[in-house]
Amino acid sequence: MSTSETVIAVSGLGKVYQSGFQALKSVDLQIRRGEILALLGPNGAGKTTLISIICGIVNPSSGKVTVDGYDITRDYRRARSLIGLVPQELTNNLFDTVWATVTLSRGLFGKPPNRAYLESLLRDLSLWDKRNEKMMALSGGMKRRVLIAKALAHEPQILFLDEPTAGVDVELRRDMWAMVRTLRDKGVTIILTTHYIEEAEEMADRIGVINRGELLLVEDKAVLMRQLGKRQLIIQLQQPLTALPAAVAGKTVELTDNGSTLVYTFDAQCEQTGVGDLLRALAREGVEFKDVNSSQSSLEEIFVGLVHDSNQQRSRA
Ligand SMILES: Nc1ncnc2c1ncn2[C@@H]1O[C@H](COP(=O)(O)OP(=O)(O)OP(=O)(O)O)[C@@H](O)[C@H]1O
Ligand SMILES: [Mg+2]
């Protein structure tokens, strides 16, 4: 579905808040039409700031953003009308009903009324029964669903979801994933932030990692997992060892678990993984195995590693 056509172009984007805090440092990012891009980063990394600038809620201090060719400052209304935003914080008027909330939002973007569309939207989000309730009479998860309905009320081409599944139950999370996929299949470009890495792993075509206002990388999920993923061979021994056998000295092998497990870390991309050599060398020394397993690092481990390395580089600089 995704093509390489850029729909949002962010260049040299910086943000210094009035407090003097620099939340973004010259971010460059091209978002492709029709993709699902997941932005990952620790609390305070700058994810919401980046999204808020693209959506015209926060002013940039430097740099430029275009949405489908429209400059977010010069052509604010055109750019904004292409975007739906599900904000991280609840911002609805609690005295409005669900129905009023979505119809108002559609009207704000100058779209003609479309009862049938809004009805199907509310039905998809299991909110139809609640359409005449005031917002304050809804549960937290329901309020979050209304935010989604509100963001989609004007049929945007691009949807930003800022931590859409924080605090929602498992069922709603699954429903939301399904909804996001349906939207993507209709050609909507989706940018989401999440602290649930399995969500990014499950949903995203590409992953961006932000730390302390810097975009550390943006990469296809599959490439990222192949390039940065490490594989490990975990060998449980019949008899614990007190030291590494001489035959494996110099290899990336560690003795753990009080000497009862050998862990060999290798690059899964390499033609020669060295697994065969290692096992033969151990057998020659008479080391016997109880069990052999292999594991592949998860996106979570890759992410934690990236953020950790970038923090270390900063503290050294
Ligand atoms: N209005 C503001 N004034 C001053 N500083 C701000 C403002 N909004 C955000 N910041 C600071 O900018 C940094 C980035 O905040 P931001 O909300 O973009 O982070 P985030 O990546 O979305 O974090 P989280 O995962 O917690 O949502 C933080 O250090 C935050 O304190
Ligand atoms: Mg945020």
Automatic annotation (TrEMBL):
This is ABC-2 type transport system ATP-binding protein. PANTHER family: ABC TRANSPORTER ATP-BINDING PROTEIN. One of its GO terms (molecular function) is ATP binding. The keyword tRNA processing does not apply. It comes from the Bacteria. Gene3D superfamilies: P-loop containing nucleotide triphosphate hydrolases. Residues 8-237 form the ABC transporter domain. Keywords: ATP-binding, Nucleotide-binding, Transport.
